[in-house]
Specification:
The protein is mainly alpha-helical and 154 residues long. Helix content is 51%, strand content 5%. It is built from seven helices and two strands. The chain is elongated. GO terms for molecular function: RNA binding; structural constituent of ribosome. InterPro entries: Rbsml_uS13_C, Ribosomal_uS13, Ribosomal_uS13-like_H2TH, Ribosomal_uS13_CS. Pfam families: Ribosomal_S13 (PF00416).
């Protein structure tokens, strides 16, 4: 069993080294998959990387500068650049992992029963915004109150 694992690991290492030297210029693909999201081929890399949850303008710029990749279209990436890009994005927290972390932090606030947790539980804004006239995003659509009439104007 152990020998089979070693041979599979060496096969994986060989395939990775082959992929680093390959170029995908001849293939027509709709988009590349990075960080559980599709990066469209027709967009430049710095805007395409923003499709990944948790990567914005700043982090996409940091990733591309760290790799030394110029801002080119996603379809123009070589195999080595694609693998390096996936590894670099994998170092940052993104996607489902980030969603789980944010959800668990909100759940912790609710369980502790602090002020922010109670605001999350009731679906209200928790950063001090006014709620008498605004906060429609958190509260949802307006609901009419039965029996209440507007006062006539004089």
């Amino acid at each position: 069993m152990l020998g089979l694992r070693r041979s599979a690991a060496t096969l994986f290492d060989h395939s990775q080294s082959l992929l680093r030297n390959l170029s995908f210029h001849g293939l027509r693909v709709q988009g590349i998959r990075v960080g559980n999201a599709e990066v469209p081929n027709h967009k430049p890399l710095n805007t395409g990387l923003q499709e990944v949850y948790g990567i914005g303008r700043r982090k996409s710029h940091q990733v591309l500068c760290g790799l030394g990749i110029t801002n080119k279209l996603a379809r123009d990436l070589t195999g080595k650049e694609l693998i390096d890009l996936r590894e670099e994005v994998g170092m940052h927290q993104h996607g489902d992992e980030l969603r789980r972390r944010v959800g668990s932090e909100i759940q912790r606030l609710v369980e502790v029963d602090c002020y922010r947790g109670s605001r999350h539980r009731h679906g209200m804004p928790c950063r001090g915004q006014r709620t008498k006239t605004n906060a429609r995003t958190k509260k949802g659509k307006r609901v009419a109150i039965a029996g209440k009439k507007k006062a006539p104007r004089k």
